[in-house]
């Protein structure tokens, strides 16, 4: 289940740092579409941008997860937890990355019922209404005041425009010297 897409941007000026932006949301909330659009937009603004996806389906572990999600392989739900964890470790173990807190978490908010109306819903194992309702409840627990909530049921262009504004503001703030912060230190 794809639950996290990250867009990282860094300006062309070497004296400034980039911004780590995370898009969260239910399956079919628009994370993939909006991240791709954001990367194009940011590059059009003269910024370099990089897109990271979880699970990363290009690695061996990621391919195992993809096969599971698309029902090409059958594994117990408890068994698949390990490859999901390993897939995150493949990314986190890169020494230059570190455990930085995102500069922005944008939550694409859509009800499970509305997400189920979108094209392709049900193609993957966890794209089931009852499961997505549970995921939505967990997001309510995880959500904190630092997250920016975007109504993902709006037209795709409206979501795109809103994300462009908040991400560009975040990038600008980072370029002006916003301090880095770390995860889970409070």
TrEMBL record:
Assigned GO CC terms: cytosol; mitochondrion; nucleus
SUPFAM superfamilies to which the protein is assigned, alphabetical: P-loop containing nucleoside triphosphate hydrolases
Gene3D superfamilies xref list: P-loop containing nucleotide triphosphate hydrolases
Pfam families: Thymidylate_kin
GO biological process: dTDP biosynthetic process; dTTP biosynthetic process; dUDP biosynthetic process
Residue ranges occupied by any Thymidylate kinase-like domain in the UniProt entry: 23-90, 93-162
UniProt-recorded Gene Ontology molecular function terms: dTMP kinase activity; nucleoside diphosphate kinase activity
Xref: InterPro entries: P-loop_NTPase, Thymidylate_kin-like_dom
Signal peptide: none
Origin: domain of life: Eukaryota
Family to which this protein belongs: Belongs to the thymidylate kinase family.
Protein name: Thymidylate kinase-like domain-containing protein
